[in-house]
Amino acid sequence: MFLTELLASSFRMGVPILLVALGAVFSERSGVVNIGLEGMMVVGSFWGALGAYLWGPVGGFVLAIIAGLVLALIHALAAVTFRVEHVVSGVALNILAYGSSRFMSQAIFKMATTSPHVSGLPKITIPGLASIPALAPLVQDLSPIIILAVLLVPVSVFVLERTVFGLRLRSVGENPLAADTLGINVYGLKYAGVLISGALAGIAGAYLAIEHTGMYVEGMTQGKGFIALAAMIFGNWSPKGALWAALLFGFAEALSFRVVDNSLIPYQFIKMLPYVLTVLVLGGVVRRAEPPAASGVPYERNAG
């Protein structure tokens, strides 16, 4: 029972990481490095909580997607159109997201760091499986966003590997000059990849605020956007790899909560587990991982 509950908690903890990692796959497959995913999660959490407070949880997720898309559009303008260095643009967006969310929280809620409580989406229980005690924690009282995140993995695989859009997106990330020569809209596909990542990061942020804690709390993302980037790298820039990596990081976070409650070790060390795992994964995987050939390289038509 303990193991099943731990796995269920791992799924719940891994969902925001998985959503952002899937978005990162689309962005980097188009050749755009998106360090700003953390900031897109931040605005998703704040605007998601605001939307849920005003119009209910569905309105919250819609507003979070819009917020993520706006920030993603800014990143695409900077990185694709104006060819700003991708990491610099992403870091600037993270700062903008933190500052603007704090300012808007103070202006709207009269509290700089928290929002009022908001209600979540109706929970789903998978019939039949819920009657099996060993599986019950995994299949009952599920947030629809958990199911959405899992379904997005095969959908992403199909889009990237079986559709014209996906094949063209990947070609742009590998060799934009060759793609441009064949008449493919390089800039449009780069924008599409970044915007998809922003929408998914917005959903992930809203999940934290609406489904996970029931309110916006400043700093609630806790670096999950950066952990998601590590999950994407660990998963070798593929949706299926991102799924298993996200579950691994979710397991580390879930385990840290349970060990804290039953350990003589200072909780600060236990809470470091997901971040230590991130460093270890990057240290052991980066050298053999193969990113898209043109990832992070600004493209200029007719350059040279």
Key descriptive features of the protein:
single chain; mainly alpha; about 300 residues; ABC transporter involved in vitamin B12 uptake, BtuC; 13 helices; globular
Plain-language structure description:
This protein is an all-alpha fold. It has one domain (2-122, 135-285): ABC transporter involved in vitamin B12 uptake, BtuC. Helix content is 71%, strand content 0%. The radius of gyration is 19 Å and the shape is globular.
In summary, what is this structure?
This protein has 304 residues and is mostly helical. Helix content is 71%, strand content 0%. The termini are far apart.
- The arrangement of helices and strands along the chain is HHHHHHHHHHHHH
Shape: globular
**Beta-strand percentage range:** under 5%
CATH topology: ABC transporter involved in vitamin B12 uptake, BtuC
CATH class bucket: Mainly Alpha
Low-confidence stretches: none
> What is the CATH homologous superfamily assignment?
ABC transporter involved in vitamin B12 uptake, BtuC
Q: Which structural class is indicated by helix and strand composition?
A: mainly alpha
Rounded to an integer in angstroms, the radius of gyration calculated over CA atoms is 19 Å
Q: Mind summarizing the main beta sheet?
A: none
The second-level CATH architecture is Orthogonal Bundle
Work out the count of structural domains.
Answer: 1
Give the end-to-end Cα distance, rounded to a whole number of Å. 63 Å
Number of E-state strands: 0
Average pLDDT taken over every residue? 89
| Number of alpha- plus pi-helical segments | 13
Residue share in helix = over 70%
